[in-house]
Amino acid sequence: MWKVAVVGTGFIGSTIAFVLASKGCCVDAIDINERRIAAFERGDCPIKEPGLAELLREQKATGRLRFSSDFSRVATADVILVTVGTPLAEDFSPDISHIRSATDAIAPHVHDGQLVMVKSTVPPGITRTVVAERLRRFADVHVAFSPERLAEGSAIRELQSLPIVVGGLDPQSSAVAEAFWQQTLGVDVIVVSSPEAAEMVKLADNLWIDLNIALAHDLAKLCDALPYDLDVLEVIAGANSLKKGQHYVNILTPSNGVGGYCLTKDPWFVHSLGARHGADLLTPKTSRTINAGMPAYCALQIAQWARRHDRVLANLQLAVLGLAFKTNSGDVRLTPVKPLLDALRSEGFGTVRVHDPMVLKEDADGWGVELNPSIDDTLRNADGVIFLVAHDEFRSLSPAHIAKLAAPGALVFDGRRYFDRSEIAELQNLGLAYKGVGR
Ligand SMILES: NC(=O)c1ccc[n+]([C@@H]2O[C@H](COP(=O)([O-])OP(=O)(O)OC[C@H]3O[C@@H](n4cnc5c(N)ncnc54)[C@H](O)[C@@H]3O)[C@@H](O)[C@H]2O)c1
């Protein structure tokens, strides 16, 4: 079986490391964050993702999964996966300093014939000019790029089912990368002709997703604005029944915004790359502007409902369900809930209670948010129940339970719970008001 080193044990690196161990690989997971390494060593999983903590404990017990901050461990690996972060710099360009430092740390330990595969999202050219050029001064390594496309909330399943794209520096690098994924995960592997093509694949995927969601947001705003009883989800479902070429129209769903570590930055990567190379790209800027505006749009919708009902905003109590940026994930990085809470405060709302069973208390430190551990306490006497993610716990809340706890006549604002038509009718029959995004 393959010996693997995973460099960078954040969300992506830990998921890949634990899953590969479960497939029988011997995995060394390496990170400069010693606190994180110590937590993994103890069997504590600081990353909130369904199934990850269980997988950690299971695979640690097999002895195939080890943690360290010692980069010399990469020397024994057949494959070194680079999964460090690539944040957005202040000027909206990609910050690849972590890629550089991880490459420098690996370099003295590599040897001929190893495969170094970059999984972090990088602009085209970084695998070749930063990673390969440095490493090949030390040894004749194979080098490839393979975009990571899994989504938080269903990461373990997606890692083992999504097709994997690889682009090697040369045919041999591609061949080793292809064999590695086929033999470990058993998924379809699509080999593209260069690392740059593979690097572009990831940016193209995320630009498509962000732009598609922006389209859904504009449709939702139009449904809200028109003087008819429109439900944007019904409109989208109808529109998506059209086959165009080989595929159906596939408009995604609107919500209270787009968050997380990828969609909020990758379109800006595309934009800054275009600007640097003389191409004035309008779509990334447009999608980012539309999607980043949704939290304020939703706060305004809630405030307008209150004003229409002659309510004094400062006297109202709001119950916000969900802080994470994604359903069934505890990740709050760049969550749209944070700007939405800020916008609710700017609108003048009084008490805002927040409940999210997936989020660690300390992750919300400094946000002026006190996480309430009890969903019922959060809902009790609320004048507005604001659903901002659709964790399983929130999906299973019945209209009757909401009505029992919330104040009479309360507003249920549906940012992402997507109540179906019969549930909406039930909420209304129970005396509650309902407002969704575009519905
Ligand atoms: N989170 C997602 O859903 C997702 C999905 C697809 C792709 N990606 C991409 O994958 C990459 C990793 O994302 P993430 O969410 O796991 O990030 P993360 O911030 O959770 O993890 C990055 C890890 O790398 C470590 N690190 C930083 N510099 C290092 C170095 N020099 N040596 C060793 N470790 C180092 C950090 O300590 C951290 O633990 C990014 O490029 C991201 O764009 C993320």
Automatic annotation (TrEMBL):
Q: Which residues does the UniProt record annotate as the domain UDP-glucose/GDP-mannose dehydrogenase C-terminal?
A: 319-421
Keyword Aminoacyl-tRNA synthetase, does the record have it?
A: no
Q: Has the keyword Transmembrane helix been applied to this entry?
A: no
Keywords assigned by UniProt? NAD, Oxidoreductase
The residue stretches assigned to a coiled coil in this entry are none
Q: Which PANTHER family would you find in this protein's record?
A: UDP-N-ACETYL-D-MANNOSAMINE DEHYDROGENASE
Which family does the record claim for this protein?
Belongs to the UDP-glucose/GDP-mannose dehydrogenase family.
Official protein name in the record = Nucleotide sugar dehydrogenase
Q: Which organism is it from?
A: Mycoplana ramosa (Mycoplana bullata)
The lineage is: Bacteria, Pseudomonadati, Pseudomonadota, Alphaproteobacteria, Hyphomicrobiales
